[in-house]
Amino acid sequence: HVAEAIRLFKVSTLNAASTGELPGDLSSLGSDQIREVQAVEEQIKRRVPIGSTVPQKKILDEFVALQGYSQFSVRKALQVLLNRGEIRYSNQQKLVQRIH
Fold first, then answer.
1. From the centroid of its chain, how far is CA 36?
2. 53 CB-contact burial (10 Å; exposed 0-12 / middle 13-18 / buried 19+)
3. H or E element that contains 27
4. Structure pTM?
């Protein structure tokens, strides 16, 4: 069972990579969505100074409820920043720490 699970995981990961569906990849988004994700990235960088830690829920609440961004764009922006090494998660992804 374990070997089959690993094989299926590898196949699905390779399929996702070849179709551009990996987390943090913007190639499958429309131009309006890309602009929104990039705007959210910049706002997160302004909101979370380097070296500080903020609850992920607080970022989501502020950006969705107060600033009107979609939850999808906020989560995608966090994923892009994570992939670039600008943030990292701690405490089971409950906290976001800005490192660059």
1. 13
2. middle
3. none
4. 0.72
